[in-house]
Design a protein that fits this description.
297 residues; alpha/beta; TIM Barrel; 8-stranded parallel beta sheet; 4-stranded antiparallel beta sheet; 10 helices; 37% helix; 17% strand; globular
């Protein structure tokens, strides 16, 4: 299953790209409209991209009245990403989306690095959201926490049906001439190829801790990258930064993923899920085996 990372594709501006996905994830919706941060809001780096959009969106009222009906016309499954600044924000957003049959999954954005997040814990937010909707809930988490496995476990125990890993992590770029920060907000969310090892580690830890379905994301550019996330424990993959440069990425990555899976002896990509854990378990088992003692004649 291939999705887009929230905020990395405008499905209404690029419907043909969106229809190549197995599901479309909306940009994060908040209770009230947000203009977002002042420009400059995007900066390229040697191995990725920084963004400081600041959750610019029309707010839930306009989203439900105008945006969602247009997205429904695309005839693809819809995941809606929601964000807030207090537990009640998430609960209210989930409650309103629960009434809309067009929405298949709600993704809780719990880790945006470009706005001040709620002081409440992941447990509080997921618990409140769970009480407000029967729809599947995916908790989108950051790798910039002391223990991603513990955070994932907390989300699971609070009622999350799945996880999205990882969100961007905070980074800084400086202008080559002035040495001033490139972004107006100085720091921004870092994404792209350099995020891949971090994403792999987070998915590996979260899968081992929870076993929940996971949408793996972070620097996916090829089918090989997608297969690695699946082997680490992901059950789906999301494309992010690559979509800005290659609108054909969904179809290309899907074809490459199928080929890579067959090369490694898997009938389907999903059959490779958790393969890295199986290999690690086998290696550990071999190390713990005691050498056989030859019987005396």
């Amino acid at each position: 299953m291939i999705l887009n990372a929230s905020g990395c594709l405008d499905a209404l501006a690029a419907p043909d790209v969106a229809r190549r996905l197995d599901a479309f994830v909306t940009k994060t919706v908040t209770p009230l409209p947000r203009e977002g941060n002042a420009p400059v809001r995007i900066a390229e780096t040697d191995a990725g991209m920084l963004n400081s959009i600041g959750l610019a969106n029309p707010g839930i009222d306009r989203f439900l009245a105008a945006t969602l009906p247009r997205l429904t016309e695309l005839a693809i499954p819809l995941w809606v990403s929601v964000g807030g600044f207090a537990t009640d924000d998430y609960a209210d957003l989930c409650r309103r989306l629960d009434e809309r049959d067009e929405v298949q999954v709600i993704e809780l954005n719990l880790s945006c690095p470009n706005v001040e997040g709620p002081e409440e814990t992941v447990v509080d937010i997921v618990t409140a959201a769970r009480a407000s909707t029967d729809k599947p809930l995916y908790a989108k988490l950051s790798a910039a926490v002391p223990d991603v496995a513990a955070t994932a476990t907390a989300a699971a125990e609070a009622g999350a049906d799945g996880l999205s890993l990882v969100n961007t992590i905070r980074g800084l770029a400086l202008d080559e001439r002035t040495l001033a920060p490139t972004l107006a907000t100085a720091t921004g969310g870092y994404s792209g190829p350099a995020l891949r090892p971090i994403a792999l580690a987070a998915v590996f830890a979260a899968y081992r801790a929870t076993g929940l379905p996971i949408v793996g994301m972070g620097g996916v550019e090829t089918g090989r990258h997608a297969l690695e996330l699946i082997a680490a424990g992901a059950s789906a993959c999301a494309l992010g930064t690559v979509l800005f440069a290659d609108p054909r990425a969904p179809g290309r990555v899907r074809t490459e993923l199928a080929a890579e899976s067959r090369t490694h002896g898997f009938e389907t990509p999903l059959a490779a899920r958790g393969a890295s854990h199986t290999i690690v378990s086998s290696l550990l088992a071999d190390k713990t085996k005691k050498p056989a003692i030859a019987s005396e004649m």
